[in-house]
Design a protein that fits this description.
The complex is a heterodimer of chains A (110) and B (139). By secondary structure, chain A is α/β, with parallel strands linked by helices. Chain A has four helices and five strands; from the N terminus they run ββαβαβαβα. A five-stranded antiparallel β-sheet of chain B has the order 1-2-3-5-4, covered by helices on one side. The chains are: A alpha/beta (110), B alpha+beta (139).
Chain lengths: 110, 139
């Protein structure tokens, strides 16, 4: 999985590309941890180019969300493909995360 | 009708998950005359990948050299998949639903597998644990 980041105002948008699974989830966890360490607490994770998520990916989203919340910030999600959205909703995590149609809208919601 | 099967063997390395995903999709897409839709393919891919990563990550005896075996069998009325690992396995009946109020960081895997498949059971012998899953064809 590729992760690129860009800033929209004070918000960091992490753009994921590929599969968020047991193999790639630790990479996202490290990236979020690094951002928290650099005092970046307003994050958007953009799923526009993610076509698969498994339980490990969900777990990293939840743990990252908790870490950012503890630091006083928030993680918001954007552009979930139908398949990914279905898994997020099946596990009720759409009650945990605010989800937006696109990264810009998500960033502007802070 | 004689069943057709595909057997995949690989060592305990999460990098193989992409291979598992690809083979799962190819097996489903190769099934003829059963009105296989995209949601069937997606469900099988997720269930098989979950089962394999579960075997690789959680099985305490899964050394890097441990072999994971996945067997896909196309039967008359369903696709049956076995995921065998050298770990002690777990008791499916004692795996509870995730706590949807607390939103835990772990524990979604078996729930997802059960949600994606029509039948899930596990078998154990002295050396292996096998998760057996099936998804029924619509016609």
């Amino acid at each position: 999985m590729l992760i690129t980041d860009e800033k929209i105002g004070d918000v960091v948008v992490l753009k994921l590309k590929g599969r968020l699974d047991a193999s790639s989830a630790p990479k996202l966890k490290e990236q979020v941890k690094s951002l928290i360490g650099n005092d970046r607490h307003e994050l958007v994770i953009d799923f526009a180019e993610v076509d698969f998520i498994d339980s490990s990916g969900l777990g990293v989203l939840v743990s990252s969300h908790r870490s950012v919340n503890r630091a006083g910030g928030d993680i918001r999600l954007s552009a979930l493909q139908d398949r990914v959205r279905a898994v997020v909703e099946l596990t009720r995590l759409h009650y945990v995360f605010e989800i937006f149609e696109d990264a810009v809208t998500a960033a502007e919601s802070f | 009708m004689e069943s057709r099967q595909v057997i995949l063997k690989f060592s305990n390395d999460l990098d193989y998950l992409r291979l598992v995903a690809g083979v799962s999709r190819l097996v489903c897409q190769a099934i003829k005359g059963k009105n296989i839709q995209e949601d069937f393919v997606d469900a099988v891919e997720l269930a098989v990948c979950e089962a394999c990563s579960n075997a690789m990550v959680h099985a305490p005896y899964s050394a890097p050299s441990a072999e994971i075996v996945v067997i896909f069998q196309v039967l008359q009325d369903r696709l049956m998949i076995q995921v065998r690992d050298p770990g002690p396995g777990f008791d499916l009946d004692h795996v509870s639903l995730p706590d949807f109020e607390a939103h835990p960081e772990t524990g979604y895997g078996i729930y997802l597998i059960k949600s994606m498949m029509d039948e899930v059971e596990n078998l154990k012998d002295e050396k292996h644990h096998t998760l057996v899953m099936a998804k029924h064809f619509l016609v």
